Amino acid sequence: MSNAVRANALYAIHAAHSGHVGIVMGASGVITTVFANFLRPGVDRFVLSAGHGSAMLYAVLKLAGYEIGDLDSFRKIGGLPGHPEIGIPGVDATTGPLGQGVANAVGLALAAKIRGTGARVYCLCSDGDLSEGIAYEAIAFAGRMGLENLVLLWDDNGITIDGVAQTPVDVPGVVRACGWRVVNDIAGDDFDRLNRALVDAKRSRNPVFIQVKSVIGMGTRLAGDAAAHGLALNDDELLKLMRQCVSGRGEAAWAQVAAGTVKKKIEKSYTIVPNPKFDVSDTDVATRELSAKYLNLLIGAGANLVGGSADLGKNTGAKVQNSHDIVPGDFNGNYINYGVREHAMAAIMNGLVAGGVRAYGSTFLVFSDYMRPAIRIAALSGMPVIYLFSHDSVAVGQDGPTHQPIEQLASLRLMPNINVLRPCNAREVAWAWQTALNDIARPSAIILSRQKFLQIPTPAHADLTHGAYIIRDATARRVRLTIIATGADVPLAIAVADKIGASVRVVSMPCVELFRKSPMRFQRDLLRGYVVAIEAGATAAWFEFADAVCGIDRFGMSGDGAAVYHALGMDADAIAVDICKKMK
H-helix or E-strand containing 417? Predict the structure, then answer.
């Protein structure tokens, strides 16, 4: 059966003239054992964290009866992608960037515990995965949570692209110290011992880590060599190897497995989320406080959400009165303390959402940089993860430039297929949450202030669905100037407008992505005259809509938040003078 997997995977690689032979030859026995003897289709999950072995995964799925299309479409436009992508039947996580799949598997295992599905999660990882820091963040978290339904199989061949793998000196020791049960040194072709280890794993009270010693490129002239990682064999060698691996007996055995494969996808349980009435009378309030109040109402009204934070739940407003901790042995809560593990939190949330749990997580906006690879995977995969990013500008103040975001907002907006929502008042906060919850085709980032600021009310007739609207219109007949602002900078824009005169319109644009998708006629009608954007962050991206931008293109400074704002040019008098000069 393993040889049948190798033959089919090599066929895909040969058709593509591209792919990774080394893992196919070295690890096919491991993936075969899991799929043939342990994986319950429609119940259990499998994650190939070593996503470069996608040809091997597709071969197994094809043989096991999953309807994935033709293997000769591998790495071709419209065919099977070069690394696994969620959406293909049997592919439970988008992997490729190493380490992500380990954390995804942790999230899937946690989702199974939260939902009570009884699912077990199997993950195959490589030396490269276990060289990445995110893998150990996730492994430590899984150990603390006691996820005994998780099995991590390490394809330990000691080789990565540049030669000897730079994993920790004692990987099993590190994992054991994280609270896992560890099984050492099973040979890759020792099917009996691997089977016994996987049977024993079902009885473990801890997550299980199995070290499988393999040979990269086994059976080729490059066996054990770093060159075996990629496509280093010529066509004749590849065809000869493929023919040697063809196995009629293996194909027949796989046909029996395929007969029991459940063809339908595992169902996700995203529920319809209520929209509670939200009235706030505060005149000066931080949007993180507004978000916390609305979130508490959502959960109280029955929203089936699982939240969490990288050790900042109260600071960001992610942990509210109706939050109840998920802890080892009790998965009935709705809030997770991930510890100071931003990257793992984001990737674990991808696994939670893939496992049917609607997840949100939080940290400060500046630390979204730690999470970015996993956010990108969520966007690429169309995963409706929700991020709460508070402390959204230099108004953070005394913590200084290390904690003051500058480029993060622009950077997130540059990413395809993600909603970036920066609300300025209670109505926009509620709308931001509802937009994020109702969009199940992409992630959403809700950007929130730490500082209190003046609440400028949204007009009752305003339509927020296009991501931008007139929050204060010009009183003159002709609009000579339109000021765009977002979030905590809307009151500043109003103050600037008051100083310039009656011909100024102020537009709140809480979601650039939705505005960009709106009809061009709507965009032209909204942004009349000379257009200026005001936002306390990087300016370059705003020139898509604006003739001029008032922002911050340098790092911040330590000091009182309001004083830092003024010192960096976010001052109504200075901005008004600057705009008037530019309009002459």
Answer: none
